[in-house]
Amino acid sequence: MKLFRIYLLLGLLFSLFSCTQQIQFFDAENNLISYQGRIDFDNPAEPILIGSASYLEINFTGDSCLIMLQNMNTPAMYNFISIELDGQYMGRLKITSDSMTVYSFVPEAKKETHNLRILKATEASNGTIVFGGVQAFGLEELETLPDRKIEFIGNSITCGMGVDWKEIPCNTGQWYDQHNAYFAYGPQSAMKLDAQFMLSSVSGIGIYRNWNSLRPVMPDVYENMYLNTDVSKQWDFISYTPDLVSICLGTNDFSDGDGINERLPFDSAQYVSRYIDFVETVYSYYPETQVCLLTSPMVNGGKAKIFERCISSVKNHFDEAKPDKKSIAIYFFDGLTPHGCDSHPDREDQQEMANRLVPFYKEVMGW
User: pLDDT tens for residues 286-304?
Assistant: First the structure.
């Protein structure tokens, strides 16, 4: 990381700051802090980053700032954050402590005001990260958020699994060590489109069956805040109404499974039926949204042709049954060979996905 240094500190860090300036504490409820993504605000003083690519953003003044974060997970597990400073990606940082810990960000560039984004690189199933506030000389107003809003619904591809294999080799450490949602096609597409984004994604999940189990599938968890089976905490769909909902589900339905659990042949009828039901759920919360359905760069050959026919059937159903809705758009990935862990797209592949999807989204949305 060339442009800044990160210090993990367990005590007071005031010595890092010039004694001629006064450090201030800004709690998580401060309106100079912006949030995006699946976040639990039940305790607004300590919001919880849940979903992939959920993030907080600040403009801070001075030569450094302190961010308070806590890993909410089992002791053996941890999370990663991705850091963007002054518009440049700076790297990932492992968040391990189960108590509120202070992280210091010290840019080397000399500027009056610095922009900092802290983005959850791991996914909801890896646990959560609690944000406890900011210590800085000052915070400044952020630019107004873009009007455009996108929700990306998907599986491990959407989560950014297997992306950072050059940083941590595949098949070493934890299965999520190469996760980096910052570089997933969703955030990368949204940034190019100047749009807000939210990811509702779970690795290994499908529409009617998962990679290594039958349940819970995406329709079982989508409405729950934590993208799990805990129905006691429901997601507040009023808090974020996307103009575009992009769904990329099917990789795991089409997969041959884990080689351990019994795997029946792919059931096209069940897949299409459950997909239709799921899109109905999406419409129940976002009746005016534009829905886009994507195939997968991880599904090829004869399976890819079946995949294309299946999502075309979903589109045709709604074109006939609900002509008042915006016609569902579909995108078929072709000629893209993933190079990441377990045949997932890596950074370059995800960027290629975004490069292909951006003109598609633009045409569909008139952006």
Answer: 999 999 999 999 999 999 9
Q: Cβ distance 132 to 100 under 8 Å?
A: yes
Q: What is the pTM of this model?
A: 0.95
DSSP state of 344: -
Locate 1 and state its tokens: 């990381």
Distances (CA, A) of 282 to 205, 247, 269, 288, 325: 17, 10, 20, 10, 12
The two structure tokens encoding residue 154: 């998907």
Query: Cβ contacts of residue 91 below 8 Å, gap of 6+?
Result: 1, 82, 83
Express each pLDDT in 7-29 by its tens digit.
444 334 444 444 456 899 999 99
Alpha helix (H) residue ranges in the chain: 156-159, 185-193, 218-221, 251-254, 268-285, 301-321, 347-365
Token pair of 214, please? 């039958």
Q: Which of 257, 259, 260, 276 is nearest to 268 (CA)?
A: 276
- Classify domain 149-365 at the CATH topology level: Rossmann fold (3.40.50)
- Find, among 46, 53, 99, the residue nearest to 73 by Cα: 99
Phi, psi of 253 (to 5 degrees): -60, -40
Q: Give first-to-last CA distance, the chain, whole Å.
A: 35
Domain 4-140 shares a fold with domain 149-365: no
Half-sphere exposure of 114 (CA within 13 A, CB side): 24
Ranges of each domain in the chain: 4-140, 149-365
Residue 353 class from Cβ within 10 Å (0-12 exposed, 13-18 middle, 19+ buried)? buried
Contacts of 31 (CB under 8 A, 6+ apart): none
Query: By C-alpha distance, which of 190, 188, 105, 185 is closest to 145?
Result: 190
CATH match for 4-140 among 2.60.120.260, 3.10.20.30, 2.102.10.10, 2.30.42.10: 2.60.120.260
Cis bond upstream, residue 216 (ω within 30): yes
Q: What is the DSSP letter of 342?
A: G
